[in-house]
Fold:
Amino acid sequence: MPAHKLLGMALRYLLLIWIAMIFIFPIVFMVISSLKPDLQLLSDSSSLRAFLPVGDISPTNYLSAFDRAPILLFIFNSVLITGITIVFSLFLCSLAAFSFVFLSWRGQGVIFAIILATFIVPFETIAVPLLLIVNNLPWIGLEGIKNSWINSYHVQIIPFIADALTIFLFVQYFRDLPKDLIEASRIDGATWFQVYRRVIMPLSGPIIATAAILKFLMMYNNQLLWPIMVVQEESYRPVMLGLQYFFQLNTQWGEIMAYLTIITIPVLIFYLLLQKAFIASIASTGIKG
Amino acid sequence: MGQVILKSVQKKFGDLEVIPNLSLIIPKGSFTVLVGPSGCGKSTILRLIAGLEDATGGEIIIDDIDVTHLEPSKRKIAMVFQSYALYPHMTVAENIGFGLTLAKVSKKDIQKRVSEVAKILQLEKLLQRKPKQLSGGQRQRVAIGRAITRNPKVFLFDEPLSNLDASLRGQMRVELTELHAQIKATMVYVTHDQVEAMTMADQIVVLNQGVIEQVGTPMDLYDFPDSLFVARFIGSPKMNIMEGEIAEKYFCQKLGVRPEHMEISKEEGLLNGSIRHIEKLGADTLVYSEIKGYDTITARVVGNLEMKIGDTIHLRFDKKHVHRFSNGNRLNTQF
Ligand SMILES: Nc1ncnc2c1ncn2[C@@H]1O[C@H](COP(=O)(O)OP(=O)(O)OP(=O)(O)O)[C@@H](O)[C@H]1O
Ligand SMILES: [Mg+2]
Structure:
């Protein structure tokens, strides 16, 4: 390999390592700190020792974190809410994208533009009007009819199912699929829904995985403002609300780090699973790359 | 089985008029080839018959049924795409049987039909493969297999062989012709390739900007082109077209002579010049000559030729082989 290429590669690796460190250091800091008592944690934090498992290392913080909050319940709630939202979101947003790309109907362009425009509306601006709406919406559930959505799982799910980003991702991906495939399946006698289910979706593995990961991060990490507004009962709270428990009375930084470490685990599991699915689906369909 | 009639069919894309007004009968069981320059509307016509595009006007009739407003799947047609359009996530067997699966045919019957079709196209050993594990020629066969499965009345082919290399194309040409003889369905075939058009067609339709220039058997079109456009389009190398003095001698504006009717003469005659380029094809030799007063004239000579570039050459032709044109149209009057 010529010298300048070698140098180029070395530089590229340095850059990648540097970027990786930026992402990894906070996580290392979090995990290491969760193992230390508060006093040592605070004194270590001004030096490199913050990233090293030195001194008084013990799982005490984890034990007391479990005492302070019903962590497993919160994780269950978050995973449930996030999971259901993702499933419905992938289904409905991909259907919407399908109709924008493959069907033609009046007003298509305008509606797509409006959906894209919602990109720039931050959730905070619609939170209060949305609260007023869900507060008065009736719901028929297992416990009979209720006249408000407050204090439930569905109030944390339904408003987040459809979103512009997911629709947009699917639209972009669908536009790149060969049009011949759709025409061939129309001639083979497929209905539009069969085209969607039997041809388009099986070829959309990579974008399904991408959209699912993004949606997971959007949901799991951001369950804060909205749950505070609509969930008063502990039994429906997601993990991010659980964090509040550790700031009440005496703030224990070690316990906070322990809590954060625990709630990061589902994210990692989800990410690794989808990454595998992502690579597998690209390899098996061979439609891209 | 499978007569297709187009009655005053029109197609516009917005303001762009692609097919102004086209009427055509595609006889049942025929192998009809559509040819014409790029962008003349060949694919559009095929897609109109398939129902992938809606006609702006006119009627499309397949076997006495007006299909103008029917769904593609209800028209009893099948289409083979240039890109093959195989479903990448399905095996060969699933690709071939997809139409039957959608029609809720029983698993056993699908399997039976798929293996029949696989046998016709020699795909038996490949049934469990995915499309990306196949060669171009094999993919082509699967695409044809998918078309055959549902016993369509009409097959539509849009440049199906253009992605294959020359020798495979030759082989597929023979296979398709044999297939046509075997299943006797109507085939409508779009191509750019002269040889495909000449060798496979019962009927050739020459198109120019959405308008039919001429319909006929390959030899009709070759021997009696109705217009200058057809004369230039059919035949390779192209017919020599000459204007001026020589055309006036034959009482026309343009005089056409096919390269194989040009002979090399020993004495000076009407066409004299020098050789610019020689192509030795083995069985024949093509001689391109710079003729005084005319453009390059091509002559096709049987066998080899003992001449070289730059040599002086005299060409002549028999008057029974000339094609005479005025205002772009053929003159059939005596002279
Ligand atoms: N969906 C469409 N929208 C607008 N114009 C179109 C569309 N499809 C085709 N055209 C136009 O219609 C004309 C005919 O196209 P068509 O594809 O039928 O040509 P073709 O004869 O098949 O050409 P080629 O030999 O290059 O495949 C072209 O000018 C093309 O630009
Ligand atoms: Mg075309």
Summary: DSSP finds nine helices and 19 strands in chain B. Residues 166-183 of chain B form the longest helix (18 residues).
